[in-house]
Amino acid sequence: MVLRSTPAAAFATRSVELTRWAEREATVVEDRVAVEEPLEIRVQGHSLAVVMRTPGHDRELVAGFLLTEGIVRDRSDILDLVHCRAGAEPEANVMDALLAPGVNVDWARLQRHTFASSSCGLCGKASIDAVRTACPPLAETRLAVRRSILARLPDRLRAAQPAFASTGGAHASGLFSAEGELLALREDVGRHNALDKVVGWAFFAERLPLSHRILLVSGRVSFELMQKALMAGIPCVAAVSAPTSLAVDFARESGQTLVGFVRGERMNVYAGTLLE
Fold first, then answer.
1. Distances from the Cα of 49 to the Cαs of 95, 189, 194, in angstroms?
2. What CA–CA distance (Å, rounded) separates 43 from 33?
């Protein structure tokens, strides 16, 4: 069976009426906001999680989520991803993953709250140790990333963010080559969802592991973003904002390069090294 990625929804943003105050005057105007809707992820009919996401690239989101959670390892593990039906019509906000025979799900390890917001990430994980054990460190050899190339990536990321340009309310994850070529970019109201969609893109394109790629994210870097990147084999994670303490610790233990506050030629290297 051929699995195909789904395109972005045509309505990832929508118009709302609001009152805008400027220089002591109120004006009723139309503006656009990022769409946020729940997506229930099921595996073999069993509910695994509900994530708040921007509709579009849902197959990539689910595939990336399952891979970065350690449920699947490669494309052959998934037979199909289908929207569940509520009557005659498919339910757009419920997707079920049908796994290949022999793929076992450790439900106890994956225990989490039924609801995961678009920003909570690790909410409900039974144990951080359970996450760590699923992610062996990278090999000794790190990806050689040049500082001069990394400095140019934020502008390239921003130029490819239509939802953010329209609303100011969408996060982005961009996957780049070591030479700075943008390979894939996904936007979402949730930082973790944007990354899962990028990983899902690589999953369908059969490009995993992403061992010679750079990930640039538009917001801060959390522990779970580093964990998800490691599950996809990404050796270098950069951000225009700050990392958390646990993200720094995880990067140093896992052998990943972690760079924050990438603002032109200025940047902070928290783990690993960069070339000139």
1. 11, 17, 16
2. 31
Q: Is 79 among the domain residues?
A: no
Catalytic residue among 84, 120, 123, 135: 120
**How does strand 171-177 pair with strand 182-188?**
antiparallel
* Side-chain half-sphere CA neighbours of 8 within 13 A: 18
Query: Count of alpha carbons within 13 Å of 9, Cβ hemisphere only?
Result: 20
Contact 197, 64 (CB under 8 A): yes
Q: Which residues span the domain enclosing 228?
A: 147-271
Q: What is the DSSP secondary structure assignment for residue 7, as one 8-state letter?
A: P
Contact 220, 261 (CB under 8 A): no
Q: Would you state the structure tokens that stand for residue 207, as one six-digit string? A: 């490009």
Please check whether residue 234 lies inside any domain of the structure. yes
Which sign, positive or negative, has the C-alpha torsion 214, 217, 222, 228? negative
pLDDT tens sequence across 171-215: 999 999 999 999 999 999 999 999 999 999 999 999 999 999 999
How many whole angstroms separate alpha carbon 95 and alpha carbon 8?
16
The whole-model pTM stands at 0.88
In this prediction, residue 130 has a pLDDT band, given cuts at 50, 70 and 90, of low
CATH number of domain containing 180: 3.40.140.10
In-domain check, residue 184: yes
Adjacent-strand bridge partners of 187:
172
pLDDT at 228 over 80: yes
Q: How many domains does the chain have?
A: 1
Q: Domain for residue 15, yes or no?
A: no
Whether 247 contacts 268, CB under 8 Å: no
pLDDT grade for 137, boundaries at 50, 70 and 90: confident
The answer to whether 135 is a known catalytic residue is: no
Examine residue 7 and say whether the peptide bond preceding it is cis (omega within 30 degrees of 0): no
